[in-house]
Specification:
This protein has 198 residues and is α+β, with helices and mostly antiparallel strands.
Length: 198
C-alpha cells in the first residue's frame, strides 16, 4: 500500500466517484463489473478494488460476500448511498436501498442484471494515461465506402450512461423491475418486469 493516511489503498478521487456511481445504480457489483462498466480503458480492476477498500474504510461501502466466481461483492452503506446520489446528481429520495444481505447468497440474479447494463451501455474504452503527442500523418485520400466482411459484427455505440439507469423505479416502490432507464430521447424504458411474489 503506497497511499496516504486518509486513503491507504492509493485510490484516486475519480475512481472513487466511478465506484460510487456504479454502486449507486447497480446496488451490488464486483470490482471487475465496475471496471468494465465505468472505465474499460484501465489496465485491470485493481484501481476499482482499491477504491472500494478506501470507501469501506470511510464507511461508504461494504463487502458482505462473494459472487459465485469468487470475486468480492461490494455494496454501499446508507452514507454511501447519499454520496452516490451526489455523484449521480440525483435527489436523495431517488437513491433506493442498499441491497443489504443480497451478497450472502452470491447474488446470481443481480450479477446477470449488471452484465445486461454493461452490455447495453458499452462504455467506450479511453486511455487512462496521457498519450504523447505525435505529428499528424499526411492526409491520405478518403477510402471508398466498403461493405463489411461477411460475419463481421460492427459495434454500435451503447445506450445511455450509468446515471441514466436505475434498478429501482423512482416513486413506485411496488414496481418490480430489473432495470429502468430514463433516456432523454426515449422517455423511459423498463426491462425485465418480474411478477410480484406473493
Amino acid at each position: 500500500m503506497g497511499g496516504s493516511r486518509t486513503y491507504p489503498y492509493a485510490s484516486t478521487s475519480a475512481v472513487r466517484a466511478h465506484v460510487l456511481a456504479a454502486l449507486g445504480v447497480l446496488k451490488l457489483a464486483t470490482a471487475d463489473q465496475m471496471h468494465r462498466l465505468m472505465a474499460p480503458g484501465h489496465k485491470d480492476n485493481k484501481a476499482f478494488r482499491n477504491a472500494a477498500l478506501d470507501l469501506a474504510r470511510h464507511g461508504l461501502a461494504v463487502s458482505e460476500g462473494s459472487a459465485r466466481d469468487g470475486n468480492k461483492l461490494w455494496n454501499l452503506t446508507p452514507l454511501g448511498l447519499d454520496a452516490a446520489a451526489e455523484v449521480l446528481d440525483r435527489p436523495v429520495g431517488e437513491r433506493g436501498g442498499t441491497a443489504r444481505g443480497a451478497a450472502r447468497s452470491g447474488a446470481r440474479h443481480a450479477m446477470a442484471v449488471n452484465e445486461t447494463v454493461i452490455a447495453i451501455t458499452r462504455t467506450p474504452a479511453t486511455a487512462t494515461r496521457p498519450v504523447p503527442r505525435q505529428r499528424p500523418a499526411p492526409m491520405a485520400p478518403p477510402a471508398p465506402e466498403q461493405e463489411p466482411a461477411p460475419g463481421l459484427v460492427l459495434e454500435t455505440p451503447g445506450m445511455g450512461w450509468i446515471g441514466s439507469w436505475s434498478t429501482e423505479v423512482p416513486r413506485c416502490p411496488s414496481c418490480r423491475t430489473d432495470l429502468h432507464q430514463q433516456h432523454p430521447t426515449l422517455r423511459q424504458a423498463v426491462f425485465g418486469r418480474r411478477p410480484r411474489s406473493k
